[in-house]
Amino acid sequence: MDSYALATRNTVEVVTDEELRSVLSQDKKRVYAGYEPSGEIHLGHLVTINKLIDLQNAGFEVVVLLADLHAYLNRKGTMEEVRELADYNRRCFEAVGLTDAEFVMGSDFQLSPEYQLDVLMLSQRITLNRATRSMNEVGRQMENPTVSQMVYPIMQMVDIARLNVDAAVGGIDQRKIHMLAREHLPSIGIKAPLCIHTPILNGLDGKKMASSSGNYISVADSEETITKKMKKAFCPPEIEENPVLQTLKYHVFPRLGTVTLHRPEKFGGDVTYASYEEMEAAYGAGNIHPADLKGAVSAGLIEALADARAFMNSE
């Protein structure tokens, strides 16, 4: 797979395609994604982690921002709590294959006078309404937002400037913040970043994935837990919004390349699929039973996360 195909696979949008092709032609290119420290790294996080690995293989230097201050501003815990989680998350990222990346703790550079001056300058250019709208998809308790949450997107813009990156990766829920960055960073002498957006996957129950709902698979889950959760997963006959198919597309195939469906001969026997599209078409045509699909996805996910599971269990 060439560098462009690696950079664009399993993305929702690239802003812009022309800029991506230009950045890919550079000898040196840097990309970053930021993560609020979380108690569990699950398949929702893994979508952007997989994309960073793709971009690393496409020639990018990868920077991971462990966004402890952002988590604090977004009411995710005390600074001590989020910093402790940040260190755990770094180990998780490495365990799932994101090695040779540069890990940066947000508070190590975001409290500098130069950084804060950039935040203040940009705060003069951005209305409260725009800041609020940019946070609606990512903010906690946004029915009653705090002033700290209005600082959050402005800091994210300054992160792009201070980390000296060409591109920013995030879920499509980050789009409004990234568009603010593209619009306003040039006003402080920083080139508008290339933005690469990945989809937001459903939880196993078909609803929004959330740690509080428990509708996710963690990268540290045991084989038994993965199998049990997948057996209970929502798996409608439709392709769209099917969390089992989403797991297959965004996690199993990118890491394994092929998937084998095991079943008795009377039900069609074993079949190996060389692409997600081929397997999706078979499921859509009714040639794969939902239970068989879940079994194949469970086995594939267990294999794909074996190294991460072994690493985390050895901690």
Automatic annotation (TrEMBL):
InterPro entries: aa-tRNA-synth_I_CS, aa-tRNA-synth_Ic, Rossmann-like_a/b/a_fold, Tyr-tRNA-ligase, Tyr-tRNA-ligase_3, Tyr-tRNA-ligase_arc/euk-type, Tyr-tRNA_synthase. GO terms for cellular component: cytoplasm. GO terms for biological process: tyrosyl-tRNA aminoacylation. The keyword Nucleotidyltransferase does not apply. Catalyzes the attachment of tyrosine to tRNA(Tyr) in a two-step reaction: tyrosine is first activated by ATP to form Tyr-AMP and then transferred to the acceptor end of tRNA(Tyr). This is Tyrosine--tRNA ligase. Belongs to the class-I aminoacyl-tRNA synthetase family. TyrS type 3 subfamily. NCBIfam families: PRK08560.1, tyrS. ATP binds at residue 211. It is found in: Cytoplasm. The keyword Protein transport does not apply. Homodimer. Signal peptide: none annotated. One of its GO terms (molecular function) is ATP binding. It catalyses: tRNA(Tyr) + L-tyrosine + ATP = L-tyrosyl-tRNA(Tyr) + AMP + diphosphate + H(+). PROSITE patterns: AA_TRNA_LIGASE_I. L-tyrosine binds at residues 32, 152, 156, 159, 174. Its EC number is 6.1.1.1. A motif ('KMSKS' region) lies at residues 208-212. Keywords: Aminoacyl-tRNA synthetase, ATP-binding, Cytoplasm, Ligase, Nucleotide-binding, Protein biosynthesis. Its main location: cytoplasm. The gene is tyrS. A motif ('HIGH' region) lies at residues 37-45.
